[in-house]
């Protein structure tokens, strides 16, 4: 089970200097989140002043305000008021300008290469009684509230079983330094992201709101 801790992410300035971005994930992994060598990227940006958005030719964007009240986004001359938790899709090569009529905002960005991948963002309300699974090809970001994540039923391969047996043989010697069980719930902090998997599918329980990003490969 993989958790991307927001507090550990490095912030990078936008290519046009108008904001700051923290990359959660990209494929393939690039040396810089801004160099455009990836086919898709998921990131969180802080916007503290009005200005033009970076252009990403050949890409499609889905932008969601996740903190703050309103982003007034103008795309190719058309004005779009983006309220909190309402995803908006537009072309990455469009001329885009953002205004902040109610103050600073933070947004979640999903950018995908047109014709290769398609990105989707859904906002869901968490429950303490019914866990929300995060599947392969998904990334779940805690936007607000308190939540824990644990791995579901694990499919253990023969190799893994052998490793587990060897580890058990040394358990007494290593008991004091043993790591938590992989199925033990782990607390999520705000904007932490859980990487989806179809093996030991992560399950999130709690109260608050979650952004579920899905990256689908486009097939002819």
Written description of the protein model:
- With about 220 residues, this protein is mainly beta.
- About 5% of the residues lie in helices and about 50% in strands.
- It contains two helices and 17 strands.
- The strands form three sheets. Strands 1, 12, 13, 14, 15, 16 and 17 form a seven-stranded antiparallel sheet that branches.
- Strand 7 and strand 8 form a beta hairpin.
- The radius of gyration is 20 Å and the shape is globular.
- The two termini are about 30 Å apart.
Q: SSE order in H/E notation?
A: EEEEEEEEEEEEEEHHEEE
What share of residues are in beta strands?
A: over 45%
Structural class: mainly beta
**If helices are DSSP runs of H or I spanning 4 or more residues, what is the number of helices?**
2
- Calculate the mean pLDDT score and round it: 86
Low-confidence stretches at least 5 residues in length (pLDDT < 50)? 154-181
Helix content: under 10%
* Number of beta-strand segments: 17
How many strands, what sense, and barrel or not for the largest sheet? Answer: 7 strands, antiparallel
Shape: globular
Quaternary organisation? single chain
CA radius of gyration: 20 Å
**Amino- and carboxy-terminal Cα gap:** 32 Å
What attributes characterize this protein structure?
50% strand, 7% helix, 7-stranded antiparallel β-sheet, mainly beta, 220 residues, 6-stranded antiparallel β-sheet, globular
Task: Lay out the secondary structure.
Blueprint: E1 2-4, E2 11-13, E3 20-27, E4 40-47, E5 51-52, E6 59-67, E7 70-75, E8 78-83, E9 88-91, E10 96-99, E11 105-113, E12 117-125, E13 132-133, E14 138-151, H1 158-169, H2 171-174, E15 186-188, E16 193-195, E17 202-217
Antiparallel strand pairs: 1-16, 2-3, 3-4, 4-11, 5-10, 6-9, 6-11, 7-8, 7-10, 12-17, 13-17, 14-15, 14-16, 14-17
